[in-house]
Amino acid sequence: MSRPNPTAALNGSQTGRICDRCNKHVRTGDPVTVYATHYDGDGWVMRRLWCDDCGDSTIGTETDGADEVVLEAVYWSGRLVGMTTTDRSWP
Ligand SMILES: [Zn+2]
Q1: What spacing in Å lies between the alpha carbon of 52 and ligand 1's midpoint?
Q2: How far is the CA of 54 from the centre of ligand 1 (A)?
Q3: pLDDT digits (tens, 9 = 90+) for 33-85
Q4: Which residue among 5, 10, 45, 54 is buried most deeply as judged by most CB within 10 Å?
Q5: What pTM was computed for the model?
């Protein structure tokens, strides 16, 4: 089954501005790291936002059977732009 490309699906999406690890507020122009999971029916869902100090470039402990990605993006006025994939659990 083919899934939409996560960067195409999430680029430009609205996001909160508080790092999920250190609670720092990110500002427009700051690089951020995003973690997302694909759900059948819902598509790609963003689940974590990390500031530049906290972001991991790899998934780390994978969730069994889940299609997960780590993405780098820039926070811009409540949206995520310039997104690139840095790690994905499914090839
Ligand atoms: Zn942080």
Answers
A1: 7
A2: 4
A3: 999 999 989 999 999 999 999 998 899 888 888 899 999 999 999 999 999 99
A4: 10
A5: 0.90
Tally the residues of the chain.
91
- Amino acid identity, position 68: E
CB atoms within 10 A of CB 9: 18
Please tell me the distance between residue 19's alpha carbon and the centre of ligand 1 in angstroms. Answer: 5
- Give CA–CA dist 50/13, Å, rounded: 15
Helix ranges (DSSP H) in 1-91: 6-10
Look at the alpha carbons of 65, 19, 70, 15 in this order and tell me if their dihedral is positive or negative.
positive
